[in-house]
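Quick illustration, no need to memorize.
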Amino acid sequence: MRQCVAMTSGPASNRCLAWLALLLASLVVLWPGAAAADPVCDGPEACCPAEQLEHLAAPETVRVGAVFIGLYNVDDKAQAWDADYYLYESWRPAPGFTPQTEIVNETSRLSSQFDETVLREGRCVRSRRIHSTLHSRFDLRAFPFDRQRLTLRLADAEHDADEVRYDRAPFVLGLDAEARSELPSWKVAPQVRFDVGDALLATHPGAPRYAFATLSIDVSRRADFYLTRFFLPLMLIMVVAFSVFWIHPDDLGSQVGIGVTCLLAVIAFQLGEASTLPAVEYLTLADRVYASSYVLITLALVESVYTNTLARQGDVARSARIDNLSRVLFPSATLLAIVGSFVVSFAGR
């Protein structure tokens, strides 16, 4: 760089200037936020006027729709998913107007393959193929038996709801059959939902309302993985933990060893399961089941210490009665805790 600054003329100087220009161009391209926004329109003049009006003389109605050809990477922790889709907009030609449709819940654009606008039967039709990551707020209260809604939310970036509205009838809606099989951990509904409305983007007084169009796909989690990898081992651990009630009260070392080992195993299982979830402000169904397991195993340890104390004091008959009662009471309490967890978790949705 210093050598290039020192050279003021000649071929070497020209080469240095060329390298500097290339370096500056690379910095502009790679600098965060330097990527160019989507072009407004590239098509007939009637659909893509060079000058866009800041305020429209009359409200315009736009029809939007999408066909999803790929669904990927549903991320519970990030509450995001990837979609590969064709996005469509249709509107009547109007002077100085082209929809400025933006994808509100898009967190990153992975690729854009084409963008085409045509005039068809008196209406402008814009079609784009986009692959992007979208944010959808998940309700995980019933995890791992939860159902979610994957959403694609559209709004006009320039005109408020008094100037641009979305037609309640979508231009097109579709979900490719192969796309439904690309999420092995989820059951995907065959139909795409469509809804329109308006909402505030800011909370200050006098803030305008903007029209929104929401396309959504309902999915339900396949719980088989969690039942076999987490809940079945958890139930077996609980069975082992309750085996302390069949051990003689004098053998406190064996009872405590089993209880502590089972408690640590449950903690390890929950950490493995919780690592895939975000830090939400509520308890999931799985959290409630694990919390119940902690409490019951701890109570089983307390019962073991208590019956051992009775046995050492010579009250063996009473300690035996408590053990016999615990053999029924603790499994029953476990079943009630699981049922209660389901009821509370689904009622809170």
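The first helix runs from residue 2 to 6.
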